[in-house]
Design a protein that fits this description.
By secondary structure, this protein is of the alpha+beta class. It has helices spanning 12-21, 30-42, 91-105, 120-128; strands spanning 2-6, 46-51, 57-68, 72-82, 110-113. Strands 1-2-3-4-5 form a five-stranded mixed β-sheet, with helices on both faces. The mean pLDDT is 95.
């Protein structure tokens, strides 16, 4: 396996990384992904890809370093997905280990992520990887502002 970061503008983002990311985020179009990464990169968003020995993108992590009052300094994982055909081959574990190394090198105290309540397979994986369930994540949809 080979793990690399992809910067905005890298053509592999759309041709290799995005198809894997869409397994988790099916709403992402190429244009929306470009826009999100362009704006998010300035806020610390980064994408890391795992390439299998056959050269295919097998996993993706979107992440950032976050400083706040609850965890002080942490590496927050926005997205973590292994291509369906590459699951249970060590890709997810390799991504977690890579991100943990980055977090430690950046002086982080925690590695954090959220996972949708319906993703029970992912939850089993996170618990096996020694993550704890420490909070509920609440969300409220907002309607567009009135004109």
């Amino acid at each position: 396996m080979k793990i690399i970061d992809l910067e905005p503008g890298d053509p592999r983002l759309e041709t290799e990384l995005l198809p894997v990311l869409r397994e988790l985020r099916p709403h992402l179009t190429s244009e929306l992904f470009r826009d999100v990464y362009a704006e998010g990169h300035a806020q610390g968003l980064r994408f890391t890809a795992v390439y299998a020995d056959d050269g295919q993108c097998a996993g993706v992590a979107g992440w950032r370093i976050v400083v706040n009052t609850s965890s002080v300094r942490s590496l927050y994982v926005d997205d973590l997905v292994t291509r369906e055909t590459a699951r249970s081959t060590g890709v997810g574990r390799a991504l977690i280990a890579h991100l943990e190394g980055r977090a430690r090198a950046a002086g982080c105290h925690q590695l954090n992520l959220d996972s949708g309540t319906h993703r029970t397979g992912a939850h089993r994986f996170y618990l096996r990887e020694r993550f704890d369930i420490v909070a509920f994540h609440f969300s409220r949809e907002l309607s567009p502002p009135a004109s």
